[in-house]
Amino acid sequence: MIWLTGNRGMLGSEIEKLLLKSGADFISSDREADISDPGEVEKFLGAQKIKWIINAAAYTDVDGAESDRDAAFRVNAEAVRNLAEAARSRSAGLVHISTDYVFDGKKDTGYSEDDDTS
Question: What is the pTM of this model?
């Protein structure tokens, strides 16, 4: 089974359509599961036999993240840690989708995980 987070966002809703079309066994959530709270993650998952977590949830307001750093950190850092821990405890995989805004934009080709952030 797959757990898709952020299913009401732009990317998450498209992933959900693909999962539905493929007939995959999945559950999805948006704000009804507070992934920044490890207890809520465990409560939401319960006894689900999760094999993969796809994290499409994010605090995407770049300007807002500058003024509300705590909220951005909760969603973009603490929540990811909680999902990683939930995946690890279940021997499940985690697919985390991020942004290229961490790079300076000067590279002519695509970025890799090994590239320096700005």
Answer: 0.83
Encode the chain (118 residues) as per-residue pLDDT tens digits.
999 999 998 899 999 999 999 999 999 998 888 999 999 999 999 889 999 999 999 888 777 788 888 888 888 899 999 999 999 999 999 999 876 677 788 888 888 878 887 7
Q: Tell how many helices (H) and how many strands (E) occur in the chain.
A: 5, 4
Cα separation of 99 and 61, whole Å?
A: 12
Q: How far is residue 102's CA from residue 110's CA, in Å, rounded to a whole number?
A: 13
> If we measure between CA atoms, which residue out of 47, 2, 51, 49 comes closest to residue 29?
2
Q: How far apart are CA 1 and CA 4, in angstroms?
A: 10
Which structure tokens are listed for 59?
A: 């605090």
- Under DSSP, is residue 41 helix (H, G, I), strand (E, B) or coil? helix
> Domains of the chain, with CATH numbers?
2-96 (3.40.50.720)
In the chain, the N- to C-terminal Cα span, in Å, equals 37
- Return the amino acid letter for 25: D
